[in-house]
Write a structure and sequence with these properties.
Elements: H1 2-10, H2 17-30, H3 34-51, H4 54-70, H5 74-91, H6 98-112, H7 115-131, H8 140-152, H9 156-207
Protein backbone atom coordinates (compact mmCIF):
# COMPACT_ATOMS: atom_id res chain seq x y z
CA UNK A 1 0.00 0.00 0.00
CA UNK A 2 2.91 2.35 0.73
CA UNK A 3 4.29 1.87 -2.79
CA UNK A 4 0.86 2.44 -4.31
CA UNK A 5 0.52 5.64 -2.29
CA UNK A 6 3.95 6.82 -3.42
CA UNK A 7 3.04 6.30 -7.09
CA UNK A 8 -0.36 7.95 -6.72
CA UNK A 9 1.12 10.95 -4.93
CA UNK A 10 3.87 11.30 -7.52
CA UNK A 11 1.29 11.40 -10.31
CA UNK A 12 -1.18 13.48 -8.28
CA UNK A 13 -3.92 10.84 -8.45
CA UNK A 14 -6.12 12.71 -5.99
CA UNK A 15 -9.01 10.28 -6.37
CA UNK A 16 -6.82 7.28 -5.57
CA UNK A 17 -4.72 8.65 -2.71
CA UNK A 18 -7.50 8.35 -0.07
CA UNK A 19 -7.97 4.59 -0.52
CA UNK A 20 -4.22 4.02 -0.20
CA UNK A 21 -4.14 6.03 3.02
CA UNK A 22 -7.18 4.21 4.35
CA UNK A 23 -5.63 0.79 3.66
CA UNK A 24 -2.37 1.84 5.32
CA UNK A 25 -4.32 3.04 8.37
CA UNK A 26 -6.17 -0.27 8.62
CA UNK A 27 -2.88 -2.20 8.46
CA UNK A 28 -1.28 0.01 11.10
CA UNK A 29 -4.22 -0.56 13.42
CA UNK A 30 -3.96 -4.32 12.87
CA UNK A 31 -0.31 -4.09 13.94
CA UNK A 32 -1.27 -2.18 17.07
CA UNK A 33 0.36 1.06 15.88
CA UNK A 34 -2.59 3.17 16.94
CA UNK A 35 -0.88 6.59 16.96
CA UNK A 36 0.26 6.15 13.38
CA UNK A 37 -3.07 4.65 12.34
CA UNK A 38 -4.95 7.63 13.78
CA UNK A 39 -2.73 10.10 11.93
CA UNK A 40 -2.98 8.28 8.59
CA UNK A 41 -6.76 7.77 8.83
CA UNK A 42 -7.29 11.45 9.59
CA UNK A 43 -5.35 12.24 6.44
CA UNK A 44 -7.44 9.68 4.53
CA UNK A 45 -10.61 11.45 5.67
CA UNK A 46 -9.26 14.85 4.63
CA UNK A 47 -8.09 13.73 1.19
CA UNK A 48 -11.27 11.73 0.53
CA UNK A 49 -13.43 14.75 1.33
CA UNK A 50 -11.31 16.96 -0.94
CA UNK A 51 -11.55 14.40 -3.77
CA UNK A 52 -15.26 13.83 -3.08
CA UNK A 53 -14.60 10.11 -2.68
CA UNK A 54 -17.37 9.64 -0.17
CA UNK A 55 -17.28 5.86 -0.03
CA UNK A 56 -13.68 6.03 1.20
CA UNK A 57 -14.52 9.07 3.33
CA UNK A 58 -17.11 7.22 5.40
CA UNK A 59 -15.06 4.02 5.50
CA UNK A 60 -12.01 5.88 6.83
CA UNK A 61 -14.24 7.63 9.34
CA UNK A 62 -15.48 4.26 10.59
CA UNK A 63 -11.94 2.92 10.83
CA UNK A 64 -10.81 5.97 12.79
CA UNK A 65 -13.68 5.28 15.17
CA UNK A 66 -12.36 1.74 15.55
CA UNK A 67 -8.97 3.15 16.52
CA UNK A 68 -10.62 5.29 19.19
CA UNK A 69 -12.48 2.25 20.51
CA UNK A 70 -9.18 0.37 20.70
CA UNK A 71 -7.84 3.27 22.77
CA UNK A 72 -10.84 3.15 25.12
CA UNK A 73 -12.20 6.45 23.80
CA UNK A 74 -15.76 5.47 22.89
CA UNK A 75 -17.09 9.03 23.15
CA UNK A 76 -14.65 10.11 20.45
CA UNK A 77 -15.72 7.19 18.25
CA UNK A 78 -19.49 7.75 18.51
CA UNK A 79 -19.83 10.88 16.33
CA UNK A 80 -17.66 9.30 13.65
CA UNK A 81 -19.84 6.20 13.47
CA UNK A 82 -23.02 8.28 13.49
CA UNK A 83 -21.80 10.52 10.66
CA UNK A 84 -20.72 7.52 8.58
CA UNK A 85 -24.13 5.85 8.94
CA UNK A 86 -26.09 9.04 8.31
CA UNK A 87 -23.90 10.03 5.35
CA UNK A 88 -24.23 6.67 3.61
CA UNK A 89 -27.98 6.72 4.12
CA UNK A 90 -28.37 10.25 2.79
CA UNK A 91 -26.20 9.61 -0.26
CA UNK A 92 -27.49 6.06 -0.68
CA UNK A 93 -23.98 4.63 -1.05
CA UNK A 94 -22.50 1.45 0.41
CA UNK A 95 -25.42 1.17 2.83
CA UNK A 96 -24.70 -2.52 3.49
CA UNK A 97 -21.51 -1.44 5.26
CA UNK A 98 -23.68 0.28 7.87
CA UNK A 99 -24.32 -2.96 9.74
CA UNK A 100 -20.68 -3.18 10.74
CA UNK A 101 -20.64 0.51 11.65
CA UNK A 102 -23.83 0.11 13.64
CA UNK A 103 -22.33 -2.83 15.54
CA UNK A 104 -19.33 -0.70 16.50
CA UNK A 105 -21.63 2.17 17.50
CA UNK A 106 -23.60 -0.14 19.80
CA UNK A 107 -20.31 -1.32 21.28
CA UNK A 108 -19.29 2.29 21.88
CA UNK A 109 -22.56 3.11 23.67
CA UNK A 110 -22.23 -0.09 25.72
CA UNK A 111 -18.76 1.10 26.74
CA UNK A 112 -20.15 4.47 27.89
CA UNK A 113 -22.91 2.78 29.91
CA UNK A 114 -25.71 4.30 27.79
CA UNK A 115 -27.76 1.11 27.65
CA UNK A 116 -30.95 2.79 26.43
CA UNK A 117 -29.20 4.24 23.40
CA UNK A 118 -27.55 0.91 22.69
CA UNK A 119 -30.90 -0.91 22.86
CA UNK A 120 -32.49 1.61 20.50
CA UNK A 121 -29.70 0.96 18.02
CA UNK A 122 -30.26 -2.79 18.31
CA UNK A 123 -33.81 -2.16 17.10
CA UNK A 124 -32.38 -0.09 14.25
CA UNK A 125 -30.16 -3.04 13.39
CA UNK A 126 -33.10 -5.43 13.29
CA UNK A 127 -34.89 -3.13 10.87
CA UNK A 128 -31.73 -2.99 8.79
CA UNK A 129 -31.57 -6.80 8.67
CA UNK A 130 -35.14 -6.91 7.40
CA UNK A 131 -34.00 -4.76 4.48
CA UNK A 132 -30.85 -6.86 3.92
CA UNK A 133 -31.76 -10.38 5.16
CA UNK A 134 -28.69 -11.93 3.52
CA UNK A 135 -26.55 -10.17 6.15
CA UNK A 136 -28.13 -12.05 9.06
CA UNK A 137 -25.30 -14.56 9.13
CA UNK A 138 -22.59 -12.11 8.10
CA UNK A 139 -22.03 -10.02 11.18
CA UNK A 140 -21.31 -11.78 14.45
CA UNK A 141 -20.46 -8.48 16.15
CA UNK A 142 -24.00 -7.11 15.82
CA UNK A 143 -25.53 -10.06 17.65
CA UNK A 144 -22.76 -10.07 20.23
CA UNK A 145 -23.19 -6.38 21.04
CA UNK A 146 -26.97 -6.79 21.03
CA UNK A 147 -26.54 -9.53 23.63
CA UNK A 148 -24.31 -7.28 25.77
CA UNK A 149 -26.86 -4.44 25.56
CA UNK A 150 -29.66 -6.69 26.74
CA UNK A 151 -27.56 -8.23 29.50
CA UNK A 152 -26.73 -4.71 30.68
CA UNK A 153 -30.46 -3.99 30.83
CA UNK A 154 -30.99 -7.21 32.82
CA UNK A 155 -32.96 -8.67 29.91
CA UNK A 156 -31.31 -12.04 30.30
CA UNK A 157 -33.62 -14.10 28.11
CA UNK A 158 -33.34 -11.71 25.18
CA UNK A 159 -29.59 -11.44 25.75
CA UNK A 160 -29.23 -15.21 25.62
CA UNK A 161 -31.24 -15.31 22.39
CA UNK A 162 -28.87 -12.80 20.78
CA UNK A 163 -25.88 -14.72 22.09
CA UNK A 164 -27.25 -17.87 20.44
CA UNK A 165 -27.67 -15.94 17.19
CA UNK A 166 -24.04 -14.83 17.43
CA UNK A 167 -22.92 -18.45 17.84
CA UNK A 168 -25.13 -19.52 14.94
CA UNK A 169 -23.67 -16.81 12.71
CA UNK A 170 -20.16 -17.85 13.72
CA UNK A 171 -20.91 -21.49 12.87
CA UNK A 172 -22.39 -20.44 9.53
CA UNK A 173 -19.34 -18.37 8.60
CA UNK A 174 -17.01 -21.16 9.81
CA UNK A 175 -18.88 -23.74 7.71
CA UNK A 176 -18.79 -21.50 4.63
CA UNK A 177 -15.07 -20.86 5.08
CA UNK A 178 -14.41 -24.56 5.48
CA UNK A 179 -16.47 -25.40 2.40
CA UNK A 180 -14.47 -22.87 0.35
CA UNK A 181 -11.18 -24.26 1.68
CA UNK A 182 -12.25 -27.83 0.91
CA UNK A 183 -13.29 -26.82 -2.61
CA UNK A 184 -9.92 -25.13 -3.11
CA UNK A 185 -8.11 -28.26 -1.90
CA UNK A 186 -10.19 -30.46 -4.20
CA UNK A 187 -9.33 -28.22 -7.13
CA UNK A 188 -5.63 -28.39 -6.28
CA UNK A 189 -5.86 -32.19 -5.88
CA UNK A 190 -7.61 -32.59 -9.25
CA UNK A 191 -5.03 -30.39 -10.97
CA UNK A 192 -2.19 -32.31 -9.34
CA UNK A 193 -3.79 -35.61 -10.38
CA UNK A 194 -4.15 -34.46 -13.98
CA UNK A 195 -0.54 -33.25 -14.01
CA UNK A 196 0.59 -36.62 -12.66
CA UNK A 197 -1.43 -38.48 -15.32
CA UNK A 198 0.03 -36.23 -18.00
CA UNK A 199 3.55 -36.87 -16.72
CA UNK A 200 2.96 -40.64 -16.78
CA UNK A 201 1.60 -40.43 -20.33
CA UNK A 202 4.65 -38.45 -21.44
CA UNK A 203 6.94 -40.98 -19.76
CA UNK A 204 5.21 -43.87 -21.50
CA UNK A 205 5.45 -42.13 -24.86
CA UNK A 206 9.13 -41.47 -24.27
CA UNK A 207 9.76 -45.19 -23.67
CA UNK A 208 8.16 -46.17 -26.98
Amino acid sequence: HEKALEVRERHNKINEIPISLSNIGINLRAKGKLDEAESVLKRAIETAKFAEEYGVYYSAMQNLGNVYLDRNRPRAAIPLYEEAIEGRNQMNIERRANLGTLSSLIRAYNATGDTNKALALVETGETFLEEFPDLKNANIEFFKEAAVSNFNANRITVGNAYFDRALSAKDSIFSKDNAEKIAALETRFNVAEKERDLAETRANLAER
